C-alpha cells in the first residue's frame, strides 16, 4: 500500500511542500520577532543564494533535475535571467545585511545605495527573463498599442494607490511634490514593470505558462513588498512593523522552485488557444517569423492585456469619484493630470478598437459576399440548415443539380429527400455528430474544422435517386444568430456510373463479354462456401485445339472472331445459374452447380461432351472462310474431402481459398491431360495427374543442379549387323542418377525440353559420346555413333556450327556420326529443320528417322527427306511372329528401305523368334535387349573388343553378345 501511495505522489510535490513549509516557518518567525532584523536579513540572503544556484546550475544543463522538466534553449535562457535576478538580489541583500544602515525597511529613493542598484538590476533581469522566450512583434502599431495599454494600466494603479494610500501621507509628510514622488520611485517602477510584463506572461507558449506565471508571481511579490515598505516608512512605522520581508521571501521561493516544477499540461485559455498553423498564419500576416526558434522550440507571443487596463481605469475612476463626492480628500492637480492623460489615451485606444471593429465588419461582409459568389458558381449543392435539418438557404448549384424551385427546397426538412433505406443511418450519424459537438462545446469551443462526411441517395425533383456525398460542418453567420449547419453535397452519379463500368471491365473480358478469371475464382469460392446447400460443384475447362495456327495463319482479328463465336456457343449450352468465363487465351471455364444426387457425375460428363460437340462439329465463320477446330475438355469435381471446414475466421477463409484453388487446378490439369492425349476428347481429373505434375515440376527444378553437379551419365547400346552379329555402331543414351535412383528418360526429357536445359544437356551428351567413340576408332574399330536430337535442339541458334565444332574438337569423322530425330521433327517445321539437317548431311553427317512408322512421315514423303537410315519402332518388332499385320508392315518397311537405298535398323529385339524373322526379311541391322543391353563405356569397350576378336575367328557370332 505504501509503495502504491508513493508512486502516486508527483515528482515535483516534494520540493513544493518543502518550500511551503519553509515559507510558513519563516512567516511565523518573522511575525513573532524571532531573531530580530538579523534573522530576516540573513534568511533573505540564504534564500537568494539558493535560488541563484538552483537557477544558474539548471540553466547550464540540457535537462533539469526532474526527468520531465527538460526545457529547450529558450527557457534555459529565461532561467539564466531568473538566476541573474536572484544573484543580484543576493548581492543587494548581502550588502544590506553587512551594512549597519542596511535595513531594507528603511530603504529610500532619496538615499540610493549600492545594494539599491542591485535590487534594480534584479527587477530588470526578472522582467528580461519573462520577455526572452517571447516572439516580439515587428509591427510598430503593436508596440504603440502595448505602450498605451501599459500606460493606462500603470496610471490607473497609481491613481488607486494615491487615493487609497499615499494621498493622505503626502499631506502629512509636508514634502514637496518632487520629493514625495522620489519617495514613491520604487512602487512606481514596480507598477510599470508589472503592467509591462503582463502581455508577455499571457502569451507564454503552451506547456511553459506555469514557469512564466511563477516568475511573474515573484515580480508581483517584490512589487508588493516595496509598496508595503514604502507605506510603512512614510506612515512613520518602525522596521519591526514591516511585514514586507515575508513577500520578498515568497518571491525568492517561487524563483527557487522554477527549475523543480518544470513544464506541465495546462488547460486551454481562450486568450491563447490558437492552433499552431493559425498562429503561423497570423505571424506571416504581421510580417513576423515563424513561432519556432532554429532548434524547433515553440516561442510564445505578446498578447495585449485586453480589458484589464479599461477595468482598472474604470475602477480608479469610480474610486476617485466616490472620494470626491464624500469630500474626504480633494483631488490634487497631479492626480487629475494623471487621470486625465490616462483617459485621453484610453479614448484613443477605444477609437482604434472601433476602427479595427469596422475593418473586421467589412472583412466579414466581404467574406460573406465571397462565400455567396463561390456557392453560386460551383456545381456542388451548398445548403445552410437549422439544427433540425430544415433548409434555410440553397445555392444555385443545388437548384440546378436537383431541379428544384427555390420555394420547393427552402423550409423543407432534409429527411424528406433522403432515400428511406439510407435515412436511419443518416439520422444516426447526424445525431451522433450533434451530440459530439454539444459535448465539445460544453468543455471548450467547437473546432470549426470538425466535419461529418456521409453518403446517401437524394431524390431529385423528377423522382430519381441520385448518389451523393455530403460534408456537414458548423456555420455561424455575422448576424450573431444561433449556430447552423453548412451542408455541401456533391452529385456522384457520373462517378457511380464510372465505378460500375470499371467494375465490369475489371471482372469481365472485353472481347467475349464473359466473366474473367478473377470473377470466376471469386465465384468459385462463393459457391463452395455455400455447400452442401448449393449441391454438387464441378468445373469444366475447355481449350481450343489448333487455335494458335488460326492466329498465325489468319491473323489475330480472325482469332478474336473465333473466340467470340466459341463464347456464344458455350453460353448457349449451359444452365442459367452456371458461370461461363474466359480463363485466358483460348481457354474457357464453366462452373457447374448440380443437385446432390447420384446423377451429378454423369450430368457433368454429358455437359462436357455437349460442349465438346458444339465447339468441334460446326465450323467457325471467319469472313468467307470456314475454320474447323476441336477442343480439349477437362472436368474436376469438388469432392467430400474438399469441403470447407465449419466456423469462421481467417483460417477458414484461407482453407476456402485453398479448396477453390485446388478445384480450379484440378480442372486445368484434366484439360492439359486431354490435350496431351491428342485433343478432341474429355478427361476427368484423377489424383495421379496432380502427382505427375508435381513430380514433373520437381524434376524440372532439379535438372539445373543435376547438370552442374554432373549427375548425368551416358550409356551405349550396341547396334549389330543381323547377318553376322558384328557390332557396327552404338547409340548414346542419357541417364540421370538422382540421389542414387535412376530417373527414366521419358520422365525428365520433357521437363528438360520445357525448361530449355535440353540444349546444353544435348551438347554435353554429343561431346562426351563423340570423344569416347573417337578414341575407339583410333584403335581401328570401325564403329559409328548415333545420338538422339529433339526439335528444340535443331532449332537452336548455331546448331550446325556447334555440331561441326564438336566433331573438330573430338576428331570423330562426320560420316561416323548419325543424328536420330523423330518423324514429327522433319514434318512440323520442315523448312528450317530440314535445311539445317541438310547442311549437316553435306558435311558428311548421317541422318536417321527414329521410331519410324508411328509419326507423320508418309511413304511418298520419305523419298524427299535427307535421310540415310530408318529405325523401325519397337511396337512393330514386338508383334513379329504373333501379329500378321505388324509382321507385314515390318516386311514392307524393310523392303521400302532397301528400294530407296536406306539402311534399316530394327529396334526392340527381345526374343529369338523376332531376330529370326528379321533375318529372314533381310533387315540389315538391329538392336535390343536380346542383342545387348545399354551399358557404360568401359563394358561397351570390352564387349566390342571381344566381338571383333570372335568375328575375326568366325564369321558367325551368336547373340546375345557376351558382356
UniProtKB/TrEMBL annotation:
Positions in coiled-coil regions: none
PROSITE patterns (UniProt xref): EAL (PS50883), GGDEF (PS50887), PAS (PS50112)
Gene3D superfamilies: 3.30.70.270, EAL domain (3.20.20.450), PAS domain (3.30.450.20)
Transmembrane segments: 12-33, 39-58, 79-97, 117-136, 143-164, 184-204, 211-234
Domain EAL: 696-948
UniProt keyword list: Membrane, Transmembrane, Transmembrane helix
Name used for this protein in its record: EAL domain-containing protein
InterPro entries: Biofilm_reg_signaling, EAL_dom, EAL_sf, GGDEF_dom, Nucleotide_cyclase, PAS, PAS-like_dom_sf, PAS_4
Span of domain GGDEF: 535-687
Domain of life: Bacteria
Annotated PAS domain residues: 367-437
Amino acid at each position: 500500500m505504501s509503495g502504491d501511495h508513493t508512486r502516486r505522489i508527483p515528482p515535483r510535490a516534494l520540493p513544493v511542500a518543502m518550500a511551503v513549509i519553509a515559507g510558513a516557518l519563516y512567516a511565523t518567525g518573522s511575525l513573532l520577532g524571532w531573531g530580530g532584523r538579523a534573522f530576516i536579513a540573513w534568511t533573505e540572503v540564504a534564500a537568494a543564494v539558493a535560488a541563484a544556484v538552483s537557477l544558474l546550475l539548471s540553466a547550464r544543463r540540457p535537462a533539469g533535475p526532474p526527468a520531465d522538466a527538460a526545457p529547450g534553449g529558450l527557457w534555459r535562457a529565461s532561467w539564466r535571467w531568473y538566476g541573474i535576478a536572484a544573484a543580484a538580489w543576493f548581492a543587494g541583500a548581502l550588502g544590506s545585511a553587512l551594512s549597519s544602515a542596511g535595513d531594507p525597511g528603511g530603504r529610500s529613493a532619496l538615499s540610493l545605495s549600492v545594494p539599491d542598484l542591485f535590487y534594480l538590476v534584479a527587477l530588470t533581469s526578472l522582467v528580461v527573463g519573462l520577455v526572452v522566450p517571447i516572439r516580439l512583434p515587428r509591427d510598430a502599431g503593436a508596440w504603440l498599442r502595448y505602450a498605451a495599454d501599459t500606460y493606462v494600466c500603470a496610471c490607473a494603479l497609481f491613481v488607486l494607490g494615491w487615493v487609497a494610500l499615499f494621498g493622505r501621507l503626502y499631506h502629512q509628510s509636508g514634502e514637496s511634490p518632487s520629493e514625495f514622488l522620489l519617495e514613491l520611485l520604487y512602487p512606481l517602477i514596480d507598477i510599470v514593470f508589472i503592467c509591462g510584463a503582463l502581455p508577455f506572461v499571457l502569451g507564454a507558449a503552451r506547456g511553459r505558462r506555469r514557469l512564466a506565471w511563477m516568475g511573474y508571481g515573484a515580480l508581483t511579490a517584490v512589487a508588493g513588498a516595496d509598496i508595503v515598505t514604502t507605506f510603512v516608512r512614510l506612515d512613520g512605522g518602525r522596521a519591526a512593523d514591516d511585514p514586507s520581508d515575508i513577500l520578498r521571501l515568497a518571491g525568492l521561493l517561487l524563483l527557487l522552485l522554477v527549475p523543480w516544477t518544470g513544464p506541465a499540461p495546462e488547460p486551454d485559455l481562450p486568450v491563447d488557444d490558437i492552433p499552431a498553423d493559425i498562429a503561423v498564419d497570423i505571424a506571416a500576416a504581421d510580417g513576423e517569423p515563424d513561432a519556432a526558434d532554429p532548434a524547433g522550440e515553440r516561442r510564445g507571443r505578446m498578447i495585449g492585456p485586453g480589458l484589464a487596463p479599461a477595468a482598472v481605469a474604470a475602477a480608479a475612476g469610480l474610486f476617485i469619484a466616490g472620494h470626491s463626492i464624500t469630500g474626504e480628500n480633494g483631488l490634487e492637480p497631479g492626480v487629475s493630470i494623471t487621470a486625465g492623460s490616462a483617459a485621453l489615451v484610453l479614448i484613443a485606444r477605444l477609437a482604434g478598437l472601433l476602427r479595427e471593429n469596422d475593418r473586421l465588419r467589412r472583412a466579414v461582409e466581404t467574406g460573406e459576399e465571397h462565400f455567396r459568389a463561390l456557392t453560386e458558381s460551383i456545381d456542388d449543392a451548398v445548403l445552410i440548415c437549422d439544427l433540425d435539418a430544415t433548409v434555410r438557404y440553397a445555392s444555385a448549384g443545388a437548384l440546378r443539380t436537383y431541379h428544384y424551385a427555390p420555394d420547393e427546397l427552402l423550409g423543407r426538412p432534409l429527411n424528406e429527400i433522403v432515400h428511406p433505406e439510407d435515412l436511419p443511418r443518416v439520422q444516426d450519424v447526424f445525431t451522433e455528430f450533434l451530440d459530439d459537438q454539444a459535448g465539445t462545446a460544453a468543455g471548450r469551443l467547437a473546432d470549426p474544422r470538425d466535419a461529418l462526411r456521409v453518403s446517401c441517395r437524394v431524390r431529385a425533383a423528377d423522382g430519381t435517386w441520385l448518389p451523393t456525398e455530403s460534408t456537414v460542418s458548423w456555420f455561424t453567420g455575422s448576424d450573431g444568430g444561433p449556430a447552423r449547419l453548412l451542408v455541401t453535397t456533391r452529385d456522384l452519379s457520373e462517378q457511380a456510373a464510372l465505378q460500375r463500368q470499371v467494375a465490369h471491365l475489371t471482372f469481365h473480358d472485353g472481347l467475349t463479354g464473359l466473366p474473367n478469371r478473377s470473377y470466376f475464382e471469386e465465384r468459385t469460392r462463393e459457391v463452395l462456401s455455400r455447400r452442401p446447400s448449393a449441391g454438387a460443384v464441378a468445373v469444366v475447362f475447355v481449350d481450343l485445339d489448333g487455335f494458335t495456327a488460326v492466329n498465325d495463319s489468319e491473323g489475330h482479328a480472325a482469332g478474336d472472331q473465333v473466340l467470340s463465336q466459341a463464347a456464344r456457343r458455350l453460353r448457349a449450352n449451359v444452365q442459367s445459374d452456371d458461370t461461363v468465363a474466359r480463363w485466358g487465351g483460348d481457354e474457357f471455364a464453366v462452373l457447374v452447380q448440380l443437385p446432390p444426387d447420384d446423377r451429378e457425375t454423369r450430368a457433368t460428363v454429358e455437359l462436357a461432351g455437349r460442349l465438346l460437340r458444339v465447339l468441334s462439329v460446326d465450323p467457325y465463320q471467319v469472313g468467307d472462310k470456314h475454320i474447323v477446330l476441336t477442343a480439349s475438355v477437362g472436368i474436376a469435381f469438388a469432392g467430400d474431402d474438399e469441403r470447407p471446414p465449419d466456423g469462421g475466421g481467417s483460417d477458414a477463409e484461407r482453407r476456402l481459398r485453398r479448396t477453390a484453388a485446388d478445384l480450379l487446378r484440378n480442372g486445368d490439369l484434366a484439360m492439359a491431360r486431354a490435350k496431351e492425349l491428342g485433343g478432341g476428347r474429355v478427361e476427368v481429373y484423377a489424383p495421379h495427374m496432380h502427382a505427375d505434375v508435381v513430380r514433373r515440376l520437381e524434376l524440372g527444378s532439379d535438372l539445373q543442379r543435376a547438370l552442374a553437379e554432373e549427375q548425368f551419365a551416358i550409356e551405349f547400346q550396341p547396334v549389330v549387323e543381323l547377318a553376322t552379329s558384328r557390332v557396327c555402331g552404338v547409340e548414346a543414351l542419357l541417364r540421370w542418377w538422382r540421389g542414387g535412383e535412376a530417373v527414366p528418360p521419358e520422365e525428365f526429357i520433357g521437363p528438360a525440353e520445357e525448361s530449355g536445359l535440353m540444349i546444353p544437356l544435348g551438347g554435353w551428351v554429343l561431346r562426351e559420346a563423340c570423344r569416347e567413340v573417337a578414341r575407339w576408332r583410333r584403335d581401328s574399330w570401325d564403329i559409328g555413333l548415333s545420338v538422339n536430337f529433339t526439335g528444340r535442339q535443331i532449332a537452336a541458334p548455331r546448331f550446325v556450327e556447334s555440331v561441326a565444332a564438336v566433331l573438330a574438337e573430338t576428331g570423330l569423322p562426320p560420316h561416323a556420326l548419325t543424328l536420330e530425330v523423330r518423324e514429327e521433327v522433319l514434318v512440323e517445321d520442315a523448312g528450317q529443320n530440314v535445311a539445317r539437317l541438310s547442311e549437316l548431311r553435306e558435311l558428311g553427317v548421317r541422318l536417321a528417322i527414329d521410331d519410324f512408322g508411328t509419326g507423320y512421315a508418309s511413304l511418298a514423303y520419305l523419298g524427299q527427306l535427307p535421310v540415310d537410315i530408318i529405325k523401325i519402332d519397337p511396337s512393330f518388332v514386338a508383334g513379329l511372329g504373333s501379329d500378321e499385320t505388324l509382321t507385314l508392315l515390318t516386311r514392307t518397311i524393310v523392303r521400302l528401305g532397301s528400294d530407296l537405298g536406306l539402311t534399316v535398323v530394327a529396334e526392340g529385339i527381345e526374343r529369338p523368334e523376332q531376330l529370326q524373322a528379321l533375318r529372314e526379311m533381310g533387315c540389315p541391322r538391329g538392336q535390343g535387349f536380346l542383342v545387348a543391353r545399354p551399358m557404360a563405356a568401359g563394358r561397351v569397350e570390352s564387349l566390342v573388343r571381344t566381338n571383333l576378336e570372335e568375328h575375326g575367328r568366325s564369321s558367325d557370332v551368336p547373340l546375345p553378345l557376351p558382356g
